[in-house]
Design brief:
alpha/beta, Flavocytochrome C3, Chain A, domain 1, Methane Monooxygenase Hydroxylase, Chain G, domain 1, 7-stranded mixed sheet, 4-stranded mixed sheet, 13 helices, globular
Length: about 525
């Protein structure tokens, strides 16, 4: 058993920001199931949206965010995020993050890009590897801090929950250590910053670690989960997809890139007034429709209208990767398809990152703060992570002194059984089938028939996985399979409940928004037994 004041599960920008801000107040343990630099943050190409230019305003950024959110944004959350954004950028610079820019009379002026859905240039970036720059700098700062310990290759199994004055309270997490042993880490405050769940889908831009662990653990612990039907599909992943999809940043279209059919015709003018800079849900459905209508496997993204030197300087990572695939993006069109990218729903939190479960906070993609609504505006994700991690840290520091030492819960059973090798192969095959059916039936375009078929099949797989979990020695692969199966089921349940098309959720049975009543959120919660 290990004890700490602040327990952070996950090592992306959200968890790192929280850890750095609370370390002045007490001891911090960060748990990550891979290496400390492996997170979705590390793969973020675009940047961080914030208002820094005199031609821009908080109101414009708020309006753009709420329009993208299709009626489900929490306006107060949006206003807080955008008003606090510039200060959080300054905090990142203070921690050593270097953004692209130039010097004017000795003062650095940050370079601002534009992406889909934005009415002004406001994307702060480091070329096209912003996430990697932010992640590496924050990890360095955490490693240098005497109050922060990072436990690599520790896989979270379940949240540790006890009764507290007739209420449930999170007191830490059970972990599978790198030695294959079950241990418990107790924290007076626990923070979920575990990222998203893109691996629920067959094609995703997310890293292999994005298996929905935080959402699954929070649901099993009894926390409220909201709006899981809103999975954002990034419109432009490089085709063909090999393993983890390679993202072609939205900033390419912000830089003048044009989407074209395979015969060279631009088509976004037929779908939205902003053409190629339309919000992601519009662009992803447009590409999906063009592919299905024409019977083609991809469309093209054309950035050849910009000078080759400009393209290479702005998108060095994309340029080099595509060149390895024999595509010179300064001269040739880029074949692209949509891929699962970002979960706009998640563990429900208030404006300070608190969940419905005492002692548990959530920040970053795992959380549903109300900022994104039914569709995330491009590059608002890293902004949300730093702003709400800052707010959560402020709240956690204010209450830590009044919290007692956590009650020690019973150790969970540490099964040492083994399952039949053939059975494990079959269940692993079920994972392939699950991700494929989520892609085919719960993807960009849905229907009642597809959702019901997916629900029935996922239920069968879930029961098989739960049975295997109960009888087998725990491994990281089995933990991830269990979480993927549960999150897939919760996404389907949420999608079935929404009998309209709104934002990222589009169904052929209800092709329009329901304007007869105030837009409703879909909230799921598992009742825990005392």
């Amino acid at each position: 058993m290990i004890k700490t004041d602040f327990l952070v599960i996950g090592s992306g920008i959200a968890g790192l920001t929280f850890a750095l801000e609370v370390a002045e107040k007490g001891s911090v343990i960060m748990v990550t199931k891979k290496k400390d630099t492996e997170s979705a943050t590390n793969y973020a190409q675009g940047g961080i949206a914030t208002v820094l230019d005199s031609s821009d305003s908080y109101k414009l950024h708020i309006d753009d965010t709420i329009e993208s959110g299709a009626g489900l944004c929490n306006r107060r959350a949006v206003e807080l995020m955008i008003n606090e954004g510039p200060q959080r950028i300054f905090d990142l610079e203070k921690w050593g993050v270097e953004f692209s820019g130039s010097f004017d009379h000795g003062k650095k002026v940050l370079s601002l890009g534009r992406e889909g859905g934005h009415s002004r240039d406001r994307i702060v970036h480091k070329a096209d590897f912003t996430g990697r720059e932010v992640e590496s700098r924050l990890v360095e700062r955490c490693k240098d801090h005497s109050n922060i310990e990072i436990y690599e290759h520790y896989a979270a199994v379940d949240l540790a929950v006890v009764n507290n004055a007739k209420k449930q309270r999170c007191v830490g997490v059970y972990v599978l250590t790198s030695d294959g042993i079950i241990n418990i880490i107790l924290g007076r405050i626990t923070v979920l910053s575990t990222g998203g769940c893109g691996q629920v889908y067959f094609h995703t831009t997310n890293p292999p670690i994005a298996t929905g662990d935080g959402i699954a653990m929070a649901y099993r612990a009894g926390a409220s989960i909201r709006n899981l039907e809103f999975m954002q599909f990034h419109p432009t992943a490089l085709y063909p997809i090999k393993g983890q999809a390679f993202l072609i940043s939205e900033a390419v279209r912000g830089f003048g890139g044009i989407l074209r059919t395979q015969d060279g015709a631009p088509f976004m003018k037929n779908y939205h007034k902003m053409k190629d800079l339309a919000p992601r849900d519009i662009v992803a459905r447009a590409i999906d429709n063009e592919m299905k209508t024409r019977g083609e496997e991809f469309v093209y993204l054309d950035i050849t209208g910009r000078h080759p030197t400009e393209v290479r300087e702005r998108f060095p990572t994309i340029y080099k990767h595509c060149l390895k695939q024999n595509i010179n993006i300064t001269k040739e069109l880029i074949p692209v398809v949509p891929a699962a990218h970002y979960m706009c729903g998640g563990v429900l939190t208030n404006l300070s990152g608190k969940t419905s479960l005492q002692g548990l906070y959530a920040t970053g993609e795992v959380a549903c703060s109300g900022v994104h609504g039914a569709n995330r505006l491009a590059s608002n994700s890293l902004l949300e992570a730093v702003v709400f991690s800052h707010r959560a840290a402020k709240s956690a520091k204010s209450e830590i002194d009044s919290l007692p030492e956590p009650v020690v819960p019973p150790m969970m059973k540490n099964p040492y059984g083994s399952s039949d090798k053939e059975e494990w192969v079959l269940v692993s095959h079920d994972l392939f089938q699950l991700r494929k059916l989520m892609w085919d039936y719960v993807g960009i375009v849905r229907s009642n028939l597809r959702l019901e078929r997916a629900r029935r099949r996922v239920e069968i797989i879930r029961h098989e996985v739960d049975d295997l979990y109960a009888r087998s020695r725990l491994t990281e692969g089995l933990l991830e399979l269990r979480n993927i199966a549960l999150v897939a089921f919760l996404i389907i349940r949420s999608a079935i409940r929404r009998r309209e098309s709104r934002g990222l959720h589009y169904t052929t049975d209800y092709p329009h928004e329901d304007t007869s009543k105030k837009p409703q959120n879909t909230t799921l919660r598992r009742r825990r037994r005392s």
